[in-house]
UniProtKB/TrEMBL annotation:
Protein name in UniProt: Cysteine desulfurase
Protein family membership: Belongs to the class-V pyridoxal-phosphate-dependent aminotransferase family. Csd subfamily.
Top-level division of the source organism's lineage: Bacteria
Chain's gene name: sufS
EC category: transferase
Species in which this protein is naturally found: Pseudoalteromonas piscicida
The keyword Transferase appears for this protein: yes
General function of this protein: Catalyzes the removal of elemental sulfur and selenium atoms from L-cysteine, L-cystine, L-selenocysteine, and L-selenocystine to produce L-alanine.
EC identifiers of the protein: 2.8.1.7
Keywords, comma-separated and alphabetical: Lyase, Pyridoxal phosphate, Transferase
InterPro entries: Aminotrans_V_dom, Aminotrans_V_PyrdxlP_BS, Cys_dSase_SufS, PyrdxlP-dep_Trfase, PyrdxlP-dep_Trfase_major, PyrdxlP-dep_Trfase_small
Domain Aminotransferase class V: 25-391
Cofactor(s) needed by this chain: pyridoxal 5'-phosphate
Length: 403
């Protein structure tokens, strides 16, 4: 059985001191830290293996191509889907833009696109742009006390029969785990295409996409121990292949003539130009690393840490915690009295505590919660009880300064 506590030693940055304070990293929802395995694979690639993919007959290029393509198999196996159903992109943002662009080719003024109130701007703005281009309507599902109103959402979906439901599996601002299973099943019965933003769920929930039965799922490597600037999207093959091309250029073509060009089948037709080869290989190393950890042990550990943090935070008078604390991946989003979240985060930083403050790229959600932002402490399995103590002590000291 995996000793989750010992995995912390695989993350060199966590031993860092900041201005004489040990780093207390509670910002994994922004980006996760990287284990040695990922760092080493990327370094080794550039030291010994660097070459372009898909276009060389020489050994280095052939090896790089094999590594790049087997990384696709690694993530496909992790998500329990077919290898040809995975497209590499620069991350969740690009994946969502690709989907909003591609799916909007079918939108008209009768089309309805449903989103949840919890969405990251990356899962709002591309759809908004698509609606503006096509005359389609953006429908926002209801929220109740900081949690998605599941029954209200289902009723609205049945009433409007949207063309697309695009929603996050997990809220980045609050950590809420959304009931995507029931909404996907309603959408599948209605013929509504489902796009699940998995940026925050890939690492914590390890979804089985066959079981989830969504049409599309997007993700970023850097939220799941991998490098920045790379990620991807899954699509049920027929639907994926039916999407029009997004970015164009070399490598994604079958034949180019000055009059017109023809394109490869998916996933190739969505991957023009030289890809982020070291990023993809580093991402596969991150998935290999995660595969060695027992998922239920990891979730039990993260939940125990989360509830310990929550309990200690609630003992501080004047703290308001937002969101769903029953179904949560380990994110605590809070404010203290009327103090500005920016001041809290800035003072916490002087104690080596790295938290996020602001609207977390969810301005509409913040408006619904009637705040202009929160402090967000987000956990991962490499955090420990010392981090929780450190954070609570730093917060108490910060509050003493502000009161
Ligand atoms: C829920 C969610 N969706 C989308 C994104 C965008 O991801 P990226 O910046 O890696 O493209 C993020 C990043 O914070 C996120 O948390």
């Amino acid at each position: 059985m995996t000793d989750i506590q010992s995995l912390r030693n695989d993350f060199p940055i966590l031993n860092k001191q900041l201005d004489g304070q040990p780093l207390c990293y509670l910002d994994s929802a922004a980006t996760a830290q990287k284990p040695n395995k990922v760092i080493d694979v990327i370094k080794t690639f550039y030291q010994n293996e660097n070459s372009n993919v898909h276009r060389g007959l020489h050994t280095l290029s052939e090896n790089a191509t094999v590594r790049y393509e087997s990384a696709r198999e690694t993530i496909a196996n992790f998500l329990n889907v077919e290898t040809r159903e995975i497209v590499w992109t620069s991350g969740a943002t690009e994946s969502l833009n690709l989907l909003a662009h591609g799916l909007s080719a079918r939108f008209n003024s009768d089309s309805v696109i449903a989103i949840s109130p919890f969405e990251h701007h990356a899962n709002i703005v591309p759809w908004q742009e698509a609606c503006q281009r096509t005359g389609a309507t953006l429908l926002v599902l209801p929220m109740l006390d900081g949690v998605l109103d599941e029954q209200g959402a289902i009723a609205l979906l049945k009433q409007h029969k949207p063309d697309v439901l695009a929603m996050g599996h997990v809220s980045n601002a609050l950590g809420n785990i959304h009931p995507v299973e029931s909404l996907i099943s309603v959408c599948n019965a209605l013929g509504t295409i489902t796009v699940i933003d998995g940026a925050q769920s890939l690492l914590h929930l390890r979804p089985d996409l066959k079981a989830l039965d969504c049409d599309f799922y997007v993700f970023s490597a850097h939220k799941a121990l991998g490098p920045t600037g790379v990620g991807g999207l899954y699509g049920k093959y027929q639907q994926l292949n039916a999407l029009p091309v997004y970015k164009t250029g070399g490598e994604m073509i079958k034949e180019v003539n000055f009059e017109r060009s023809s394109y490869r089948e998916a996933p190739g037709k969505f991957e023009p130009g030289t890809p982020n080869i070291s990023g993809v290989i580093g991402f596969a190393a991150a998935i290999d690393y995660v595969n060695e950890i027992d998922p239920s042990a990891l979730q039990r550990y993260e939940q125990a840490l989360y509830h310990s943090l929550l309990e200690k935070l609630r003992q501080i008078k004047g703290i308001t915690v937002y969101g769903d604390t029953q179904n949560n991946v380990g994110v605590v989003s809070f404010n203290y009295k009327n103090e500005h979240h920016y001041d809290l985060a800035t003072l916490l930083n002087t104690y080596g505590v790295a938290v996020r403050s602001g609207h977390h790229c969810t301005q509409p959600l913040m408006k619904m919660l009637k705040v202009n932002g929160t402090v967000r402490a987000s956990l991962a399995f490499y955090n420990n009880q010392d981090d929780i103590e450190h954070f609570i002590n730093a917060l108490n000291a910060t509050i003493d300064l502000l009161d």
